[in-house]
Amino acid sequence: MTTTESVADEFPVRFWNVEDLRGLDFDPFMAQQLHEEPVSRVKLPNGEGHAWFVTRYEDVKFVTSDPRFSRQAVVGRPITRLAPHFIPLDEAVGFADPPEHTRLRKAVAKAFTARSLERLRPGAQRAANALLDEMEDEGPPADLMRHLHGPLPLAVISDLMGVPQEDRPRMAEWTNIQLSAAYGREASEKAKSGMASYFTELLRSRLEEPRDDLAGDLAEATREGDLSTEEAVAIALLIQASAAHAVRNNSANMVYALLTHPDHLARLRAEPALLPQAIEELLRYIPHRNAVGLARVATEDVEVAGVRIRAGEVVHSSYLTANRDPAVFDHPDELDFDREHIAHLSFGHGPHFCLGSMLARLESEIILSSLIARFPKLRLAEPLADIRWQRSALIRGPENLPVTW
Ligand code: FLV
């Protein structure tokens, strides 16, 4: 048990200067904290003050599901963080606690059940086929980011949302600025408000002319009085940006992992039925992001792994370190397709568990199975040193993924 006087001595504030990492390298600071100081205090490059940083699997599950840790209490506080701005709008579901959180999610939950999403599969597969036809026509070498990982997730979420073709390049640009720490606060806030105006207009048009898409569902929820316009817009924005961006990067990281683990790739070619299991292990293994995202604030004193966290203090936790916790995963730093019970936390935990997890899995399955089936000799077209990795990114991924076949 700690007392206020001893906290500063026992938990010196570590400055976490988030470095750009290459490939799928695991952040050395995160690894060190997990193994040597599983609950610590950190200061990140933006915001003010410091925060607790919780790394172990069980502790991360506790912090992310116990109602004494609030997201709502983050709003309006200049919490220490990686990005210069906050990603979601203040009204967004990401900042809500139950019961408001439950109300906000309900409006869109139906579109993201496994059953609803299965209806998207044929269209998504056709889109992937068309993109790969084009890539094959152009011939090798080809950049998979340009041909597949960029356009496919953007097309899938835009179809679901109801964003028309001609607006998608704009969406991609706003999203990239919004989900990066590289452009500064002003540009990021501008991208956010541009996207918010866009969705305000889109939802208004759905009220006049209802359509069977997510924008239509959200507009209907505002008409019924279940959501305010600001809430509906904030949900649309978060879904559109996160879906396109997260899957673009994560699916590219999956392909990169396979191309740099040729035995694993060969095994998947020989045993296609292994794919869903392989995807779960890739989700566990891939460090999806730099540093940590949205924090929580303790609403009363709570003990985490024997450490007293006081009411009002800020807590960051990491799904990445949880996924490497040796108490839960044997040889956690190895990619192992035979691993059993891969209860990874890559989609989070608790009320904010990723709404799009089934959609992300579906898209990853289509991307990997299509590449495997169509390109039996797929390999990197350039030396590893020539692959560029995004800098100052929140979500990690390559800028280019040059392949040949
Ligand atoms: O990386 C972050 C992020 C990504 C995302 O796809 C959605 C988000 O709401 C966030 C976020 O809030 C904070 C991040 O650092």
TrEMBL record:
One of its GO terms (molecular function) is oxidoreductase activity, acting on paired donors, with incorporation or reduction of molecular oxygen. It holds the Pfam family p450. Keywords: Heme, Iron, Metal-binding, Monooxygenase, Oxidoreductase. InterPro entries: Cyt_P450, Cyt_P450_B, Cyt_P450_CS, Cyt_P450_sf. Belongs to the cytochrome P450 family. This is Cytochrome P450. It comes from Streptomyces triculaminicus.
